[in-house]
Specification:
Rossmann fold; Glutamine Phosphoribosylpyrophosphate, subunit 1, domain 1; 503 residues; 2 domains; single chain; alpha+beta; 23 strands
């Protein structure tokens, strides 16, 4: 059900990088997000280009595949999806072949189902009421049982994704006489896990969030020049996708809420019996773009506060603070402000490397991290450096970065991490390794420091991470740091990832 785990650290402990890993796989030592979803209802407008730019803004949430489905006024669906980045999948001629005023889009990183074109989204399913197109961000924990239940009803499941299971559950509910709204609720009531959904139908779009709101989903509007009283509506994983198309952020979809947008306007209902807010804290630390807004402020502001807390908790005497770009920059600036130690750019990121299927030579693997990060010798030479990153998962990239800093002349390298140690795998839509491959689950902080070659290593405390939100700490899922899962995990899934848990 889950993709193959990453290659573990070298048993020698000297170099945690497996030389057989591709340059890309071992240089991206971060948990991977599941997906980005987008939907637009805009009568009188060709919706596909709005969807294209919306997905472009959500590219960071998934780089394996992209897809868009559109609906014309007669209810006909047009769709295209393929492997690759948004800019690689879509061209002007392809977009021109996707007419319509309704669009549903998706960028994918696989957490359930392998990375292949058959598993790209939106999932399109034919029903007696017309075609539905479903885009899903999250991960179900009851996929196996749910899928077997649908197969027993002779549903023609063709992929290995949990998203297809939800789509066919809607189709089955349609057969019983339920409308789109009721059918979507029926499918969600059978789904356990994390899911933020955008669903296109011949007459409108639906936006749905699981009862815990683990993955984000926001609502926006675009001014309707022909009818100012009836704005166009947009659904997206993050507000940055609203900004790029000039939409106004209205609010987030609440945990356990369903919104239904048609020509009659928008309706809202709480479909879950007992919603309980548990937003993934990693969305705020790392996944969502820093210019996206949650709870009335940009995530840049939150990450800046993480750095402030980190600086107070883990002071060290040094000459400068630098960041692992780009995700570590706000926390590094916050650390600098808190400590009074100057911030500088010590690593330059090559933003145009992109994803490549070309395998590097062995010699290139030895310096592979520099494909993406290059140290500035004249800035670093002779300096005591504090380097700030947002997380350490396997430690592979950290090792390479530290080695590069020392080769550039840094006399001391101290690492500070703006989140607690990642000790438990995620089951809700983040592709983390099995527990035995999470370095902090098997290794003490002092030993991690030795493995990655730093003079000192400190993580932000769990309390500091939550205090920086300025909100009720009970409103967040932090299971990857604590093992306290808000949605119960079936034992077979636990055994695949929680290999080190004590009985």
């Amino acid at each position: 059900m889950f993709p193959a785990a990453s290659v573990p650290s070298s048993p020698t402990g000297n170099d945690p990088v497996d030389p057989h890993l591709s340059a890309e796989s071992w240089s991206d030592d971060k948990p991977e997000e599941a997906c980005g979803v987008f939907g637009v209802f805009a009568p009188g407008i060709e919706a596909v280009k709005l969807a294209y730019f919306g997905l472009y803004a959500l590219q960071h949430r998934g780089q394996e595949s992209a897809g868009i489905a559109t609906y014309t006024t007669d209810g006909q669906i047009h769709s295209y999806k393929n492997m690759g980045l948004v800019s690689q999948v879509f061209s002007e001629p392809i977009l021109n072949d996707l007419p319509g005023y309704i669009a549903v889009g998706h960028t994918r990183y696989s957490t359930t189902g392998s990375s292949r074109v058959a598993n790209a989204q939106p999932v399109v399913v034919e029903t007696s009421q017309g075609s539905l197109a479903l885009a899903h961000n999250g991960n179900l924990v009851n996929t196996v049982a749910f899928r077997e239940k649908l197969l027993a009803k002779n549903c023609p499941l063709e992929t290995t994704t949990d998203s297809e299971v939800i789509a066919y559950a809607i189709s089955e509910a349609i057969k019983t006489g339920k409308d789109w709204h009721q059918s979507a609720i029926s499918a969600c009531q059978q789904s356990d896990g994390a899911f933020s959904l955008v669903i296109g139908t011949p007459t409108g779009i639906l936006g749905i969030r699981d009862p815990h709101g683990i993955r984000p989903l926001v609502l926006g509007t675009i001014e309707n020049e022909d009818n100012p009283d009836k704005p166009h509506y947009v659904l997206a994983s993050e507000t940055c996708a609203l900004d790029i198309i000039g939409a106004t952020h209205v609010r987030e979809i609440e945990p356990g809420e369903i919104v239904h947008i048609t020509a009659d306007g928008i309706t809202s209902e709480t479909w879950a019996a007992k919603p309980e807010r548990k937003l993934c804290i990693f969305e705020m630390i790392y996944f969502a773009r820093p210019d996206s807004h949650m709870k009335g402020e940009s995530l840049y502001s939150y990450r800046l506060r993480l750095g402030h807390h980190l600086g107070k908790e883990s002071p060290i005497d040094a000459d400068m603070v630098i960041a692992v770009p780009d995700s570590g920059v706000p926390a590094a600036i916050g650390y600098s402000q808190s400590s009074g130690i100057p911030y500088a750019e010590g690593l330059i990121k090559n933003r145009y490397v992109g994803r490549t299927f070309i395998q590097p030579t062995q010699a290139m693997r030895e310096i592979g991290i520099r494909m993406k990060l290059n140290p500035l010798r004249d800035v670093l030479e002779g300096k005591r450096i504090i380097i700030v990153d947002d997380s350490i998962v396997r430690g592979t990239t950290s090792y390479k970065i530290v080695r590069a800093l020392r080769e550039a002349g840094a006399t001391e390298v101290h690492m500070r991490v703006s989140s607690p140690p990642v000790t438990h795998p995620c089951f809700y839509g983040i592709d983390t390794d099995d527990q035995d491959q999470l370095i902090a689950a098997t290794t003490s902080t002092s030993d991690i420091a030795k493995k990655i070659g730093v003079d000192s290593l400190n993580y932000l405390s769990w309390e500091g991470m939550l205090a920086a939100t300025g909100r009720n700490p009970e409103n967040y899922c932090s299971a990857c740091f604590t093992g306290d899962y808000p949605i119960s995990i079936p034992e077979p899934l636990k055994r695949t990832k929680l290999m080190l848990e004590k009985a």
